[in-house]
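anyone seen this seq b4? input:
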Amino acid sequence: MPDALEEIRREVVACVRCPRLVSYRSRVAQERKREFRDQEYWGRGVPGFGDPRARLVVVGLAPAAHGSNRTGRVFTGDRSAAFLVRGFYEAGFANQSTSLRRGDGLHYSDLYLTAAVRCAPPGNRPTPAEQRNCQPYLERELKALPETRAILALGR
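predicted toks r here
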């Protein structure tokens, strides 16, 4: 991973700028969903993931409480991730059709995934201030992805 993306990754993982989000992501990681109670949750900021030479960047809103907040990898471990990864695989961007956890062998070619907000928000609704706090991470990521030709924003 290029140095700029690695630096952003480290900063996102360590970020505590938004007290409400830090509290929520930590609480969810401690309480855990029954379905995942035997798994250790990530419970930190979730960095982007993918090919640093990607021409396509996909931007979601924020990590899911029991998806990326659990796995530590964006668009991993929940129903929406399963749908997206299968589609990315069928379109030739992914080397496998599933994404269950970090370290599961998933690799993207020509695709980079990221989010506007890096911590799971309560009710999947970050505040405008929380969005502004994360905005520099997204802006820096986009600058560190010089081959980008298209950005696909998911959601509203």
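The two ends are 30 Å apart (CA to CA). The beta strands are 49-50, 56-60, 111-115, 150-153. kinda curious what u guys think
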